[in-house]
Structures are given as C-alpha cells and as structure tokens.
Amino acid sequence: MTKSIVTVIGAGLAGSEAAWQLARRGIPVRLVEMRPGATTEAHRTAFFAELVCSNSLRNASLETAVGVLKEELRRLGSLILAAADRTRVPAGAALAVDRDDFARTVTAALERHPLVEVVREEARTIPEGPAIIASGPLTSAALGAGLNRLIGARNLYFYDAIAPIVTAESVDMTIAFRASRWGNGGDDYINCPLDEARYHAFIEAVTAAEKVAVHPFEKPVYFEGCMPIEEMARRGPMTLAFGPMKPVGLIDPRDGRRPFAVVQLRQDDREARLYNIVGFQTKMTYPEQRRVLRMIPGLERAEFVRLGSLHRNTFIDSPRLLRPTLQLRGRDDLFMAGQMIGVEGYVESAAAGMLAAINLARLCDGAEPTAPPRESALGSLVAYITDPARRDFQPMNANFGLMPELAGRMRGRAKKTALGERALAACDDWIARERIEPDGADAARVAFA
Fold this sequence. Notes:
The strands form 4 sheets. The protein has a 6-stranded mixed beta sheet with strand order 6-2-1-7-17-16, with helices on one face. Helix 2 packs parallel to helix 12 and helix 3 (79-86) packs across helix 4 (99-111). It is built from 13 helices and 17 strands. The protein is an alpha+beta fold.
C-alpha cells in the first residue's frame, strides 16, 4: 500500500494520538473533527482531546496497571502523555492536568504539524481508503448510521456520567480538611467529612431527588467504573460509604479520628481555583444537585462552575468485530479506536489510537500489522476486548487482572511490582523486535518545539 492520505475521524484522545503517530511516521493525515460546527451533550470547546469528565488520567504509580500503561505510552512516543506531563497539576498519586491547557497543547501540536490537515466538518459516511474511526462514544447519528450499515445493528451502549466542579474559594475550610489517603501525595485533596447521621440524611436525599428522565428509547446500562451516585445509593444505603465516600486512610486533623464517610475534591486546574467532586457522577436535575450536594459538610455555600450530567455512550461489539490489531474484520484498511471499541478511560482511549495508528502505518509501509504482547498493559487490554469467545461484553479499564499470571506465588505489592516490570520489559522487547518507534523520534521534543 502506498502512503496515500489517511483519514482519521474524531479528534478526541484516540483520534489525536492516532493522527500524531501517523504523521510522525511520515504518513499524511486528514483529521476530521466536527466541533465547533456540530457538538455533543458533553463537549464545551473546539479543542482536540477535550477532557469532558474528570481531569485525572488516574494513578501514575507503576504499581497500578494504568500507571504501567502510561509508561508504555511514553516509551511509544505518545503525544497525549507528553501533553499530560507538560500540563500536570497536583493530585497525589494521580496524573491530573489543567484540562484547558492540556487540550490546547494537543491541538497546537497537531495544527502546526505539516503532515496533518485539519478538517472542521462532520463526517457523515465511512471513508473509502485507509482510515481510523475514533469518533468516540458520542458518535453523531449520521456516522453511527453509516457504521450500522457497515457492521450491522448489533451495537451496544452504556451511560457515562460527568462529576460536578466547584470553586475552591466556596469550600468551607473550617469544616473540610486537606489530606490524601494514607498520606500518599501530601495534602492534594480537600476532604469533606460526614458523621453517620449526616451520611444517611445525604443518602436519603440522593435517593429521593428528582432525576433527569431517561428517553423512552434508551435503556440505562451503566459501566461499573463510572456509576452515578444515585444508582449506587439505590443498591443499598452503605454502597457509597464503601465507594467514592469511603473514609479509609483519612484522619480528620481536628479530632484525630476517621470520619464515618468522606467526600473528596480534586484539583481541576493549574491555579487550584477549581475542584471536582471525585466519583460524584449524577443524573439528578440541576436544581436538585445544588440542593443535595450543598448538604455535604463544607459545601453548604458551594459555587458550582459545572454540574453533573449523564449522556449516552455507544460502543461496538469489539470481540465480534475487531482483530487484535484493531482492524475491522473484513476490511484490512479500516481501524477502530478509542472508547467506542470498549476501552474505558482517557489513557486507554489514547492507547487504542496509538495501536491503530502504528498498525495502519505498518500497512502503508507494506509491513504486517502487529499485536502488542499479552504481558504488557496495552496488549492485555487489547486481548480482552478483541477475544471472540467473550460474551456479555462490557467496557474495560487497564488492570493487572487482564495480564497472564506470574510464575511462582506472589502477593500484594511485590506481585504488582513484578507484573509492572514484566509488562515494561515485554513492551520494550516488542518495540525493538517490531521496530515500532521511528528512528530518532522524540514526541515531546517535536510536539512542543
């Protein structure tokens, strides 16, 4: 296959990463993004790689699978990770970013690349010729109809929820206190403590609050990793206390005791003026959110700069439709990437865009597409979502449970460390064996020169 122009549909995390990886390998790219001419229920800007939910790319430790995945992406020359490292804000053990600086950085890098042509229009049909579809979980109706014609109507769907954001100055710090769990990361989080009575009153209010109605044609199927708080409360009065409101590892410095429950706020911008309410995705109506969330101690006078919302996310039946190379079965030159293939999370979406681009570039160069090793974080995730034997497919985050077991008996931190070390060694071996990385290509240096 000659190096004809490759079309990438969607400039989210996956599409942005894919376009960058193709361009840095000498492949001309036509990056099609419908915003700002058309938008979605969740987006608010025209920037590429806009983070519409949390501003956190989750844990950065190599004792977590997502931390290992981040390091794999750095070794693969990821634009998304380079931009995240450049725009990082304090968040304890997590990699969190100033969301506007992050998106602006990614956008600028792509717009000035000489091999990237940015087209601001809605893609309404499936492209002919080499392409990557990374249109995201909020794919437009027209493109979705085109996908259905191509792959059939067996699309699955779930619901993703956005957590509210408050101003730091509106938090009552005579009640709230700063700390990270077990002291890991210092005092990066603001914690709002609840005693048992106030916790149960809050749960009752969440349960009774008016919710945004589900459309008659929609069936709410929630992803366990992004559950609305009212859905958790419906499962039992103590569910939130063992979920996002768990007090484990936190001591209120005022009395030296662990609260019954805690609501955590995480820094959302570089200047620490905005904080998001961690894990508090919700479908409560806006007036009810203001009323109920102000029942939280320390948030009685909270100023909300963004309230929570819930939107429909679509994803395809990847075990039936995709190869481990992320090629669509039956069409070698069409790749799929991002959340719409059933990876859940910012880093996982970027990783899917990375792999799709690597393989499409190889196809353009006359080489065989490649699947990353199962021992790596990327390879184990891709193997999971493309396993044709899988039934009842649900979106998946990177996690150590997807990786092959280690030899011998190991537990706890030692096991996680060993899994991470093995994953990175396998990734390095794959990069060298398959000549994945372009010679002398330094993503961060080139992107931000």
